[in-house]
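A favour, since you know our structure tokens better than I do. Could you add the entry underneath, on a fresh line?
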Amino acid sequence: MSLPRHALPEPDVLAGLPPVREIPADEVAARITGGPRLVVLDDDPTGTQTVADVPVLTAWTVDDLRWALRQDSSAFFVLTNTRSLSPADAAERNRQVVRALHEASAAEGVPYVIASRGDSTLRGHFPLETDVLAEELTAVGAGAPDGVVVVPAYIEAGRLTVGSMHWMRTAEGLLPVGESEFARDATFGYRASALPDWVEEKTAGRVTAGEVLRITLDDLRTSGPAHVAALLGTLRDGATAVVDAVCDDDLRVLALALAEAEDKGAKLLYRVGPSFVRARAGQSGRPPLTSAQLRPLRGDAPHGLIVVGSHVSLTTRQLDRLRERQSGHGNLAEYELDVAQLLDDARRDNHIREIAAAAATALETSEAVIRTTRAVVTGADADTSLAISRSVSAALVEAVRLVNAARRPAFVIAKGGITSSDTATHGLEIRRAWARGTLLPGIVSLWQPADGPAAGIPYIVFAGNVGDDDALADALDLLRSAA
């Protein structure tokens, strides 16, 4: 097998590791009972894909946050969608959430701890978000965090951290994330794959690699929770720790250690990938939803809508495979929102209306795909590129809103982080929902909207960078089986 320049066979990377310290999820659940509520500020909606039966908010008024704090759940998500925002707007949104959350917490008498959920391939506003959260927590009187704990692992998707090096699973082997296409992101690009070096790079040297506390698999597996809690207890003045993880048990050891450290007075802020949330919330991995479980959730229209905004190569391959599988069946209609027309003010509105009208009509006889032009259009700099992405995403959202007003789909699949966030909040006007589980193991979350025009329409959050080439087609097959 030919490997990319820095890819290694997975067994080679994992060779010689200490044996797993097995920790049942029930042990974590019992340990965190009565403790602070885990509030996950999710920079796009895909962080929910590792949990089940957890509340999700797309708004952060005090009333919304009080509703979430009253639910019988050890954690809940607040969809901030900050990965799609400018740095200034992302900072302000984080400040708004902390102020409202602190007021809601006082009103309900429920303490909280915050996890800033970023991408497992290290994209997002770091260290901006944790810096702002620390400042705002201090300002509202919650206390300055002693440390920021960075845990980007996403087990199901093969985003693993070993020896403080962060890897991603590919068909050719484990690849250091700094060598991946995600590291070349026009807005959030980076070069380092070792997390301490990445922290130094992203903080522009404010935090050096040598200052970062490294919590390794030896610490987690050999020494155990009490030892890791003692390490966490050494953090002061917002210092950074990075944590290895290869499996859920590693993260559950960490969860026990965090609970112990916090009981002893440590104030910690988390910057994490999706798998941390499941472990810290005391949940175990659950199998995907079945046809029988999906049937009462599915809308009563004959067919569903698929919205594709992600431009990563995996999404394009998944879309190609979906077409191949449907070839000859005649039950997939596809419509393209042309980026050139979307960026032309004179043509934009008519183009969106035409696409939406065609897709709504198609739902009577087939699933409908609305996608953007597959070629990525970027600007002269990161801010311009982000503005183009926002404009295109807004067009997708408007198309979804128009489709839903004309013909409510049986379900909606949104492919891509920004796409799925904007579709939820603006296209379907979801304010409160429950993440009910996944369509594929550990990926592709299904939300049940609790209110608004999308009530009764299952909403499927499908990240651009997860699954194999067949994942989109497999997800659609499962939804169709519930008809």
The chain has 17 helices and 18 strands. Residues 13 and 250 are 16 Å apart (CA to CA).
